[in-house]
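Researcher: Next entry: NAD kinase (Hallella multisaccharivorax DSM 17128).
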Amino acid sequence: MQDKRLRFAIFGNEYQARESAGVEQVLACLCDRGAEVCVDRPFYEYLSHGKHMNVKADGVFDGYNFDADYAISIGGDGTFLRAANRIMAKGTPIIGVNTGRLGFLAEVLPGEFGEALDDIYAGRCELEEHTVIQTEADSRDTAGALPLEGCPYALNDIAILKRDTASMITIRTYVNDDFLVTYQADGLVVSTPTGSTAYNLSNGGPIIVPNSGNICLTPVAPHSLNIRPIVLNDTTVVKLEVESRSHNFLVAIDGRSEKLHEGTVLIIRKAPCKVKIVKLRSKRYFSILREKLMWGADQRG
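Model: Predicted structure:
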């Protein structure tokens, strides 16, 4: 049993009304352990004022201004991705408590949180490291790389997409400076193994197991039937030159969309950081595939 008073940073979804009971369970477990608890300010205000909860916390924090031994995401997979974006540069391990729907990333149910906490305090918790990818924009009109407005890191995927009702876009693609193919499609998804079961999968991409050392390029509604997803080593550097009739396009980094102008070149590569996810010993990747995605289920009568 650890003698140190552990510090936990809590993130949540202030738009999810049904999570109150799960939050109370998590806070009760942390209180029983005498943990130091800080809560992301928007989530704290939502719980305190919106749900009228008496939140027992040692403090609140804004943005990236927190210091914790572990982070806790309370919500669904979207909440988990937003929290992961805040903690990945710090290397803080994250626990996903699922009060949403699917819960593929946020896999710990509120009733199982005590088990996860027991493992943490007993020093036997399992940490699974997940690859992160990053993108930078290089404009032909200016010298050097341009910073994107938002965070350039993605745990799931980076998607290049057409805007609204615009015609399909043209994406000239290079792998380590070697020309691969020109996609004519509604978009292109560059996915990590973590994101392979998300937008990549819905577009016909393959499932890639964690720690496999791969990324995947999957076109969105390609114009040609001869274009298929391709799996690459995650040390690969991908360069994308995008053309569009509307002269602009979208880049979505874990769902956070940003408009870019035609003529902008995107460089996508493995990031220097990883996301460490706390795993329950009772849960394994293939069992989650079967339970959450109904993998291999026979729907015939």
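Model: Note for the record: The longest strand covers residues 264-279.
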